[in-house]
Protein: UPF0276 protein A6M23_03835
Amino acid sequence: MIQDTTAIHTGALSREIPVAAGIGLRACHYRDFQNGKPPTAWVEAHSENLFAAGGLPHRVMHQVRSHYPVSLHGVGLSLGSADPLNKEHLQQLQQVISRYEPGLISEHLCWVSSEGRYLHDLLPIPYTEGMLQHVSDRIDQVQNVLQRQILIENVSAYLHFADDQMAEWAFLNALVERTGCGLLLDINNLYVNSRNLGINSDEYLANLKADAVQEIHLAGFSIETALGQEVFIDTHSQAVWPEVWTLYRRALQIIGRPIPTLIEWDTNIPPLGILLEEAQKAQHFLEGIHA
Structure:
């Protein structure tokens, strides 16, 4: 647990995330940020990487926050789980928020734990009225503790639930209405689901509450073969595919405004320069919709 929860001194640096392209902070790029100030508008870190009492992640994050607005992206709240909310996890998140003053805080629409055991995956939930009430109650609890709005991200999935009662976009819209949360739209996940599950991405984007979308994620997927069929896997292991860039452009057009956009790359991570090049591509799209 973090012992020193004193917020860092950022001077006049705003915590607000600019409407521009940013990159995810990964350990292999720590030295780049220690040795200089890479040209990115903002930086996103995984919340759980900062739960330890100290060490290199905090030394780097302190320096990063001194130069950039940051957002925190969580993977462990397990909003869809039947387990009670993990109070220790929530307390640690609250301490990290106090320390680094992030502009945005986000979590996934999924479950990752059962009976106190945590899994290394973001598992989908059924879109039912019962689950909607369950997740809404948990988001309310989280926002009441943090005294901050959180963004909820759509996840990739590889199956439909037979009991689904509504589309994912309708479920997300209802969460916004019931809790006042915001949305983090992952374009790569939407594309993966459109290929694997036949989701109509145009219908999805046209019906999603555009004014609730406060952040967008872009990443690269992989293609595997299972039972003689292609399966699109959300691996974050390569550059953003052309099809995802196309869907990103369409999303910006449908939403009607530029949105802070993050490049994610979690496996087979390249040198920082390649990540920055991907961010520049996203910046080009943002400036185009701005114009």
Confidence is low (pLDDT under 50) at residues 1-11.
